[in-house]
Amino acid sequence: MENSTVVNASTQNQTDFFGDFLTWTFTEKDPRYLQPFWDLRLGYEQYLESPLFPVFISVVFYFGLCLPFCLSDIFCTNQGWYKKYKIQPDKEVTKAHYYDTLTLTFWNHILFIMPAAVGQWIWTPSTPLPDLAPTLFDFLWHQLAGLFIFDFQYFVWHMSHHKIRFLYRHIHSVHHRYNSPFVWVTQYLHPWELVVVGFLTTTNTWFFNSHPLTVWSYMIVSIVVSVEAHIGFDFPFLLHNLDLTGNIGGSPKHDMHHQKPLTNYQPFFNHFDKLFGSFCPPMSAGGKKSKELQEYEQIAKDCKKNL
């Protein structure tokens, strides 16, 4: 009886310690691990408080992130690794492709993003910068929640623009001009789609009254996952290859959406596509088709024969 009491007391102490540790780490007692990074803002408040700063960081980061993949498509096509990791290695990215996509991207930024930024600069008040950094818990879960919310929003928007013929023909078909994505296809969008996607991305952190550092990081993370979905490569270090749950789509899944437009509507994850029957197994690096994809295509072929 005494031994049982000792064991129970020991177990209770371990549980209390673990609970106290989580409480200390992930609540108001969080020692603000991000504070040293947040303190780098000191002396630059007049720039960071500006309503233009989120626009500036988004545009600069987007083009900076796209550039390495752009250079790869220009200068590395004859290198072994290029064909090895390209999802559709038989498709070439030409100068005409670059001219077309960059021209539309340029005019979208000039005619829509820039006026929106100017309006935001005129009518939006400066961003208040608190003295304390966000807690690590808030910093992480706000961004993850924002991604899941956007994933659902865009799934509904995306599916409706494929199912409703008018919306596809006059809006979303622009993005599907290329069935083999490359990096500049990311923002190769009809202006209405650009505005909607930008609005949803910008406003999702408003639900949580997120810290400015969290908002800026969320914008960067959103750009990373959007660009990565369109690069046309399946590198082993990408997040979907490290995900043990199989719930992250990544570039192969969205690449397959451009090949089979009535599949894979979710931009980041897989759960809604699997739930509603729109999931298609993707090709992997080098154009390799998995057993699941071969079975999917055979079933689709058999269904067409029976129509």
From TrEMBL:
Ranges annotated as spanning the membrane: 52-76, 97-119, 139-157
Domain Fatty acid hydroxylase as annotated: residue spans: 144-278
Pfam family, one: FA_hydroxylase
Keyword Membrane: yes
GO cellular component term, pick one: membrane
GO MF terms held by the record: iron ion binding; oxidoreductase activity
Compartmental location: Membrane
Protein keywords: Membrane, Transmembrane, Transmembrane helix
GO biological process, one term: lipid biosynthetic process
Full protein name: Fatty acid hydroxylase domain-containing protein
Organism listed in the record: Lymnaea stagnalis
Taxonomic lineage from the root: Eukaryota, Metazoa, Spiralia, Lophotrochozoa, Mollusca
